[in-house]
Amino acid sequence: MINVDANPSYPRVIADLKRIGELVQRCRCRPVRYLNNIVEQEHRAIKRRVRASQGFRSLDSAARTIQGFETVNMIRKGQVRWLPKDDIAGQAAFVARLFGLDC
C-alpha cells in the first residue's frame, strides 16, 4: 500500500511502475491526504534545507545529499539497531563505510 496526497499524477505513475515491473501488481495506491501527513512531516526538515541552499544543480547531487540527510535522521532516531545513538565514533565510521568516504 502506498499512501499519497491527492496529487493526480501519483496513480498514473504507480500504474506505469506496475506495467514495467518495478512494482508488484498487488501494490495499491491510497490517495488520502491525511494518511500521508507522517511522511510529509519527516521530510519537512529536508525541504527547508534544500530551499535554503537554493536547490540542486543535478539529479546526482540531489540523490547523494538526500541519502545523507536520511542516513543521519535514521541514526538520530535510533533506527539503526546495532548502532547506539550516543556512539559518535561508531556513527562516523558507519557513515564513512556506507558512503565509501576516506576518513
Summarize the biggest pleated sheet. Answer: 2 strands, parallel
The helix fraction, in percent, is 55-70%
* Model regions low in confidence, pLDDT < 50 over at least 5 residues: none
Largest sheet, spatial ordering of strands: 1-2
Q: What proportion strand?
A: 5-15%
H and E string: EHEHHH
Shape: globular
Radius of gyration from CA coordinates: 17 Å
Explain what this protein looks like in three dimensions.
This protein is mainly α. It has helices at residues 9-20, 37-52, 59-76, 88-99, and strands spanning 2-4, 29-31. Strands 1-2 form a two-stranded parallel ribbon. β1 (2-4), α1 and β2 (29-31) form a beta-alpha-beta unit. The longest helix has 18 residues, at 59-76. It starts with a strand and ends with a helix. 0% of the residues are buried.
SSE arrangement:
Layout: E1 2-4, H1 9-20, E2 29-31, H2 37-52, H3 59-76, H4 88-99
Parallel strand pairs: 1-2
Question: Can you summarize this structure?
Answer:
The chain is mainly α and about 100 residues long. About 55% of the residues lie in helices and about 5% in strands.
